[in-house]
Sequence to fold (329 residues):
Amino acid sequence: MSVLVTGGGGYIGSHMVWHLTDAGEDVIVVDNLSTGFDWAIAPEAVFVEGDCGDAGLIGRLIGEHAIDAIVHFAGSLNVEESVSDPLVYYANNTAKSRTLIELAVKAGVEHFVFSSTAAVYGTPDSYPVSEDAPLRPESPYGRSKLMTEWMLADAAAAHGLRYAALRYFNVAGADPKGRTGESTRNTTHLVKISCQAALGKRDGLTVFGSDYDTPDGTGVRDYIHVTDLVAAHADALEALRAGESNLVANCGYGRGFSVLEVVETVKRVSGNDFAVTLGPRRAGDPAAVVASPERIVERLGWTPHHDDLDRIVESALRWEDALSRRNRH
Ligand code: UDP
Fold:
């Protein structure tokens, strides 16, 4: 049995590949390296440079390797970019997923784990948000991911494919062993940006909005350590292989931190001060998005081991520093 991981050179995908190879799984990675890096891929995995929407390539790989599961990370993830270039998002996140699902069905690949997002909820009426909350994505990014959830549900009903769609909240931190981390160029993510500011890699940070209806006026998010997130994928895969039914589940800890709390944590943990400017809101940013993690805990027995903002920040700082020392960026 082998696992096909799309986007295995990316931030979350590369952590998943390490997790799987650590567990002794045979892993085939497909990544077009548009945003990912070949050096981030565990050497024990077979790496094929190519596109997850290339039906010929994926069909051949499924035929050549005894693939029983696809873990699908590849895709585009910038909300603002999705507003200005929506068709790219529907191509990369929806159309290519359709191809992959069709190939899985045709070849009898039974298990599919999909990277979905809290963006499918849009601005929740209240938080913590459960999976039964209304689905009102506010961007092409959120809609492109939700469409894939729907395709999976329909393909599962019609063809017996079994799947887990995991709705990520704010993923942060890096592999505690320092083997990979968030290496994305031009990141928009708060934890990485704050760490870069703390290490002098950028001139401080702008807080996007300080007039939200939240305790300190800045946006509140549920930051989940990437190691706990990939463990959720591994748990989901194990459950599917054991014959458990399909799962759509939030991945978050169920508690929120404001932008200013994150910034203060990064300053304290790094011991470095940096300039913080209060700026206008960023288009499309909800005030607060916090997960209710009850379903994934109940269904998979998922147990987070890194639910601690200081540890998330420590690992992110270590990785950011390692990137500089490795002369990566
Ligand atoms: N944010 C900020 N300044 C930045 C980047 C992010 O104030 O330079 C805020 C953003 O408005 C949101 C939170 O930090 O409230 C998390 O943003 P991020 O882009 O990390 O993730 P998102 O929640 O948008 O997926």
The domain at 2-172+223-251 is CATH 3.40.50.720 (Rossmann fold). The chain has two domains: 2-172+223-251, 190-221+254-291+302-327. Residues 170, 188-190, 193, 205-208, 219, 221, 259, 282, 285 surround uridine-5'-diphosphate (CB under 6 Å). The chain has ten helices and 14 strands.
